[in-house]
Amino acid sequence: MRAIISREPTGPDGLFAVDLPDPVPTKRQVLVRVRACGVCRRDVLVSRTAGRRGLHDPLVLGHEIAGDVVGLGPEARGFAIGDRVASTQREYVCGCCTKCRTDRETLCADLRFLGQQAMGGYAELVLVNDDNLAVLPPEIDYVQGAIVGCPVGTAFNAVCDTGGLRPSERILITGMGGLGSHAVQIARATGGYVIASTRTPAKEAMLREIGAHVVIVAEDGKFSAGVRAATQGEGVDIVVDTVGGAIFNEVRKSVTFGGRIVLVGDVTDTKVELTIAGIYRRGLELRSAVSTSRRQLRNALRLVADGKVRPLVDRTMPLAEAAAAHRMVEANAVAGRIVLVP
Ligand SMILES: [Zn+2]
Ligand SMILES: [Zn+2]
User: Fold this and answer.
1) Is the pLDDT of residue 333 over 80?
2) Which of 40, 71, 133, 204 suits a disulfide with 31, CB 3.0-4.6 Å?
3) Both 237 and 143 in a single domain?
4) Which structural domain, as residue segments, surrounds residue 197?
5) Distance, CA 112 to ligand 1 centroid (Å)?
């Protein structure tokens, strides 16, 4: 099969197109012919990870996969040849640890993430264990289906499951990349009063169009005064923060007494100084949403199939142009996902 491998930790310059042997499914593995694979910031970060400890060799990136079932291991269940499928972000979870048995398999100690510990979807074929796939509803095409598992499913996790958003609650979503823009749609569909913050004035109209009641454009990253103004001085009930340390103090100042702060990634790599009193005295909760469980993938597929959430795809590009796609993501030159098509 043709595949793109990340040979050296030098980002786009380290990506090469090669021929690899076709993978053969064993045990509960399903062989999927990749029809579409999203380019995630996580792939971009992994492609620059020095040392490469724990990463699969050869390293084929890509965990946002949709395709067709073309082969089944002898113990694979629930799928037939020809099924259209979408992946969670993982190739394997153990299925029997406490986390796996309580809907928290995204924290399974034995998990293998696609494109990290297992070969991913920047290839014509990929192996995924049966319990990390879902059938793609007929309303959803491969390109949109590829990105339901990561940005849409993780946004669902953050807003609905971890955040516990209830109708009429006020929710602030920070950072309008893939996670943030889908979180806006999910929060609106759930009945929340949705405030979106972005540094980019050009995104304002789009954010209103996809469901934000209020858009705060703060090019200097200081959005908390705007959030207070939009909530009669109170602050929001929930923040879903997709940005990280650099804005944590603005996040903290934006939330009301007893509010929840949902952390869903850190793209800033910035240390935070905080006083426990500033959290405890105001009754704040710090929660974390880590990727997408199988149930959350099915929940997200339902929302997309019903037209309540639209996966935001910037463009498709041929698999062979993966390096160019990575350069565009690194330059922040895309609105929505780039999806590679083998
Ligand atoms: Zn992703
Ligand atoms: Zn497990």
Assistant:
1) no
2) 71
3) no
4) 152-288
5) 14
